Amino acid sequence: SRQELILDSMVEEGMIEEAEADKAKAEKLVFADEADKEEEEIAPYFQDHVKALLHNEAQMDEAAVDTGGLIIETTLDPALQQQAEDLAEKHMPDNGLQVALIAMDPRNGEVKALVGGTDYNESSYNRATQAMRNPGSTIKPFLYYAALENGFTPVSTFLSEATSFSYDDGREDYAPSNYNDIYANDFITMLEAIAYSDNIYAMKTHLSIGTDELVNVSEKLGLGTFENRPSLALGAQPVTVLDIANAYAALADGGKQREPVFIRQVRDGEGNKVYEQKPPVRQVLREDTAFVLTDMLRGVFEPALNSYTSVTGASVAAQLTHPTAGKSGSTPRDSWMVGYTPQLVTAVWVGFDKDKDINQSVEGQISKRIWADFMEAAMANELKLPFKEPPGVEAVDIDPHTGLLTSDACPNGRTTYFLAGTAPVNTCAEPEAAEDLQEEPETKDPGFFKRFFKWFSIEDGDPSDPSGPTILDEGEESPATE
Question: Going by C-beta distance under 8 Å and a sequence separation of 6 or more, which residues neighbour residue 198?
Fold first, then answer.
């Protein structure tokens, strides 16, 4: 009735013709109710990113998106989104600390939940897609992927001790440290180094295979163009939360990767499809190597590996009910937790927007709590699927510390995967076999380590030297200058 009254008044005032009024009266009205208004407020950061994608990729302006009568089918899971927002509200303190979360299905690249900050009304800046932050130790899996591709195995050893690295023909020194200056002062395996997030092992790996290897892997995974420098191994070059989540998705899906998908399709008022986001699938990593790395990343949540220090996922390990792999990471200003099952990848970042350090013992643990709570809620009704074992790998029971096969003399081992033909053959009952494995680069094949000596020399030194960033983990790595 109101529609007809207004149209008749417009005809009387000469604003429109009678024929136009009759045509308008025949149109069906669509009413918005309170439920529709509430729906518009769901996932505002996600909605903003969808609009940006439609503008940049489909050349749709804001007016067309808002008022063009389009039906936009997104990948958002409202239940998971609500879980993410509720957990952010539950765990985040009211002190200016910010949070970002991305959850995506690695099997198709669909983004299921996105949190870009603690309060959209206060700040619409999307920290999940726009903020560039140092990833800390969450970059290490890609370093170790490169190492596996260059002859390393899960039981390759390095000496974990306070170490100063001299490079650029002795003109520069770099002395990263472990959390609280805790070192094994012994040889540790790559499996242990990942579980404990040992920085010295990571640096020795980075330098021995050549610093360009991590640069190449990172570029393959879409993390950006990295500078070729020593501190890259400890997460010194910034990335977005979305990009790091998508990089881990490649590990979860056997080395396959897609661009993150937010929009399934867009239809106009007549039901015609006018846009769909369907990126191609790329095999960016080797399936067998990605699986071996995933198996080691499961060790992050295995307290049975505790030795000279605890595994970095110990505080949340008991919560996890599905096969899960992951890695924590932190810098003085950032706290990260990234992890995955075969069905879901979730990345969480916590930190301040501006130049302000976080309290590692308190604020530094929030990302893990949000991540673990979210993963368990999201996986509650999902099957407990194992990571799919590909051809080209083999599993043996090893002693995690020596890297040798278990035997009756040392029975309590861990089933660990290796690339075919690279598993150890000696048992941990043979001390001389362990000694053969425990060598520093100086005594190994000089051809293999030639790049190590071309770039760097290693000597014992004071780990407090502030050259380069100090990266933290699990509340884990000691605060120092970036």
Answer: 160, 178, 183, 184, 188, 192
Chain centre distance of CA 100: 12
Supply the range of the domain harboring residue 317. Answer: 136-259+280-460
DSSP string for 309-343:
S--TTHHHHTT--S--EEEEEEETTEEEEEEE-SS
Two tokens, residue 170: 């002795």
Q: By the 8 A CB rule, do 205 and 143 touch?
A: yes
Of 44, 138, 198, whose CA–CA distance to 348 is shortest?
A: 138
Task: Report the C-alpha gap between 367 and 133 in whole angstroms.
Answer: 14
Which of 211, 14, 302, 122 has the alpha carbon at shortest distance from 202? 211
Q: Which of 158, 147, 149 is nearest to 444 (CA)?
A: 158
| Dist CA 231 CA 167 (whole Å) | 12
| β-sheet bridge partners, residue 163 | 460
Q: Which of 325, 294, 295, 293 is nearest to 312 (CA)?
A: 325
In this prediction, residue 270 carries a pLDDT of 87
- Alpha carbon 67 to its chain's center: 36
Six-digit token string for 356: 């302000």
Pairing of the two strands 282-283 and 273-275: unpaired
Question: Which pTM was predicted?
Answer: 0.85
The verdict on residue 314 lying in a domain is yes
Diameter of the chain measured on Cα atoms: 103
pLDDT along the chain (482 residues), means of 10: 92 94 89 58 94 92 82 96 97 97 98 98 97 98 98 96 80 85 94 97 95 96 92 95 98 98 94 93 98 98 95 97 97 97 98 94 96 98 97 96 88 94 89 58 39 37 36 41 28
Edge-to-edge strand ranges of the sheet holding 263-267: 71-74, 263-267, 273-275
Contact 39, 53 (CB under 8 A): no
> Residue 401 falls within a domain, yes or no?
yes
- The total number of structural domains that make up the chain: 1
3-class DSSP assignment, residue 461 = coil
Q: Does a structural domain hold residue 68?
A: no
Task: Give the CATH number of the domain where residue 329 resides.
Answer: 3.40.710.10
Alpha helix segments (H runs only) across 210-348: 212-220, 241-252, 287-298, 314-317
Q: Does residue 265 form part of some domain?
A: no
Category of 337 on φ-ψ map: left (φ > 0), alpha (ψ -120 to 50) or beta: beta
Q: How many beta carbons lie within 10 A of that of residue 25, not counting itself?
A: 11
Q: What Rg, from alpha-carbon coordinates, does the chain have?
A: 26
Distance CA(211)–CA(228), nearest Å, equals 6
Nearest Cα neighbor of 279 from 99, 435, 53 is 53
* pLDDT for 356: 95
The Cα–Cα gap between 123 and 114 comes to 15
Report residue 218 as tokens.
Answer: 């990172």
